[in-house]
Amino acid sequence: MTQNRYIIIREDLVQDPVTIITEGLLIGRLLECELLLNHPAVSRAQAGIKGRGGNYYLFGLRPSNPVKLNGKPVEENEALASGDILEVGPFLLELDRTDDALVIKVSLIIGTTVETASVSSPNLGTQKLVLPSALAGEGKRAPKAPRAAPLPGDKALDFFWDKRIREAGKMVRPSPLFPKSQRRSGKAQFNWTPTTDLISRWPLSFFLWGAVVVGLLSVAAAFSYTNAFAPAPVSLVHTRSQLQMSPAIAAQANGNACTTCHSFSGSMEANCSSCHTAEGFVATVIEPHTAAGVGCVSCHAEHRGANFKPGEAALGTCTGCHNDANSDTYNGRGVATPHGGTFGYPVVAGKWKWKGLNETEWSLKQIPVERLAVDTDDTWRSKQFHALHLERVRTVPGQRGNAEGQLSCSSCHNTFNPIDRQTPRTTCAGCHNGRIDPSSNRIVIASDKPNCTSCHVQHIKDKRHWNPSLLALHAEARP
């Protein structure tokens, strides 16, 4: 491999002459070029000089931006001689030959000199214009030796310069901006994409102080204006600061406090049960609803406005859920319209369909009727059903009873031998239709609508009866 010697004299820089020994001298603005000409008008790798057969040849590597040799663009290659001038962008390269090296003197054309002249002068004209390239060569000595002819087309030379350009483009020096991770393979890793590292950032303090201000306002609102965080006001009963019912059905008044229901220490269901455990009420849910995942908030909604009454609204949720149109499942259990849309009778086809009361529920009634060892399930259910009605409930207008105005056997049965089993099916609505709020005498359920909770008691430890006016005097203490 032939190595050539080049002496670079930079008159445009404060730099001592540099001797470069290389097979081929690459000229361009890439940092990897032996002759670096840093200017936008210069291509990345614009030209190359290579010695061959005792002569030096200039090769044009960018046809779209050719180097000029003595004012003539070089498209392929030209032999160089002493006294030649190369124009590469704004740079002038003066060439000279020594016995063993090619001397290249680099200068930079900064601009032209502006002189003051009279436009009326007869000497002012365009007849004697001189080209810049001619000016640059004026005063230079002629070549010492005849110029050699250009080299014929050679694939080896083409491969040589292609390899030099490719290697120069790949020799990228380490940079703090160079991507260190998620680099692509092949040539794609040299195609950089714009990043956001130079975009002006918002001052960090702006966001910090903004977060502090928002946090302080939120804390202030949490104590002074709790409704700001609520979708709607809570009901009036949950805004009172004192208990008004006796016996009380809550451990303490809520006072419109959010944390009574919403807290980090327990679920809302647990908070409901904890608060509504008092002298007159214990928040229990029947076993079928517990198994179906139905809790307090399933029936007793909140945040519906100050005039909303969660207790009364729950009475309307029975038919809203238990109907044939509801296709939802609750822990895998479906629902349908109960009793065919009418009152449910406890006996179907001569068998008791009513499950009766369990031991806990029956003991809360405080009725002096006990199950005997010989009683079957149907016999015990019959005893419970009749004990809940006989001599315990007052008659309603139009209904027969005993001398004290209480329900008796003849209140429902017209005959006893044989026993009348048809009339009782028509007497249920006399007591189990409609509902009136005892405290306000307001109609909660219309008189022609069934009262589901009159039979299906949800809160068995509630000391309030659904209709106290129906209870006989000696039974008022036992709901």
Your description of this structure?
The chain has helices at residues 132-137, 155-170, 204-224, 268-275, 287-291, 296-299, 310-315, 317-321, 359-365, 377-389, 424-427, 429-432; strands at 4-10, 18-22, 25-28, 35-36, 47-52, 55-60, 68-69, 72-73, 77-79, 85-88, 91-97, 102-108, 277-278, 281-282, 347-348, 351-352, 433-436, 443-450. With 479 residues, the protein is of the alpha+beta class. The chain folds into three domains: 4-110 and 132-174, Sandwich (Tumour Suppressor Smad4); 235-321, no CATH class; 345-475, no CATH class. A seven-stranded mixed sheet has the order 2-1-12-11-10-7-8. The protein has a five-stranded mixed sheet with strand order 4-3-5-6-9, with helices on one face. A two-stranded antiparallel ribbon has the order 13-14. A hairpin with a 2-residue loop joins strand 15 and strand 16. The termini are far apart.
**Assembly category:** single chain
Percent in helix: 10-25%
- Please trace the helix and strand order, writing H or E for each element: EEEEEEEEEEEEHHHHEEHHHHEEHHHHEE
What is the CATH topology descriptor of the largest domain? Answer: Tumour Suppressor Smad4
Sheet of most strands: 7 strands, mixed
- What gyration radius follows from the Cα positions, in whole Å? 53 Å
Strand order of the largest sheet: 2-1-12-11-10-7-8
Q: List how many beta strands DSSP finds.
A: 18
Proportion of beta-strand residues: 15-25%
Structural class of the helices, strands and pairings?
A: alpha+beta
Q: Total helix count?
A: 12
Gross morphology:
rod-shaped
- CATH architecture classification name of the largest domain: Sandwich
Q: What is the mean predicted local confidence, pLDDT? A: 81
CATH class of the largest domain: Mainly Beta
Pick out the low-confidence regions. 112-117
- Taken together, the total number of domains comes to 3
End-to-end separation in angstroms reads 115 Å
